[in-house]
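Progress report, Aim 2. The chain analyzed during this reporting quarter is listed below.
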Amino acid sequence: MPLVKHTLHGRLQKAFQTKTPLEEKELYKVASDVVAGLSRLHHCTTPIIHRDLKVENILFDGEAYLICDFGSATARVWDPKVHSVTAIIEDLEKYTTLAYRAPEMVDLYSDRGTLNTKTDIWALGVLLFKVRPSFGSVLTIRVVCQGLDCFERMKYV
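Predicted C-alpha cells for the chain:
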C-alpha cells in the first residue's frame, strides 16, 4: 500500500493562500471519487455509515481522492423513537463533526427519521460546498430546522 502524503484539506489551503480555486475538472474528480467511495460503503450487504465525512478525511494519492478515517464508521442505524436520545447524543458528540451533521442529527426531537446512510449524503453536500471555487468572498449560510436556526451565521471562505 503506497504512502499517501496529500489531503484535500491541504489542497484547499494551498488554493486559498494562492487565491487559485480548484479547477472545474478537479472539482468533478473530487465529487466523483468521493461519491464512488460512499456508494461502495452504502451498498455493502450491511450498509456502512461513515459518519465523519469531511474535507480533512479525504486523501489524494496522485490519481484518486480516497475516503479515510473509518474510526467513526458503523452499521448501526439510530432511531430516536427507539433508542435513548442521550445515548445517541453521546455517540454523535464522540464520532461526528458538528458542521457536517445532517439536520436529523442536530435536532433529535423533530421526528426527522432514523440516522442512516442519508446522513453521509448530507455531509457530502457540505464537503462539496466547501470545495466550491468561490474564495473571493465570505459566504454566510443558515441551516433552518423547522424554523430554528441550528447554526446562526456559519461562515465559510
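The domain at 6-156 is CATH 1.10.510.10 (Transferase(Phosphotransferase); domain 1). The helical segments are 8-17, 24-42, 85-95, 103-106, 118-130. These observations will guide the mutagenesis work planned for the next reporting period.
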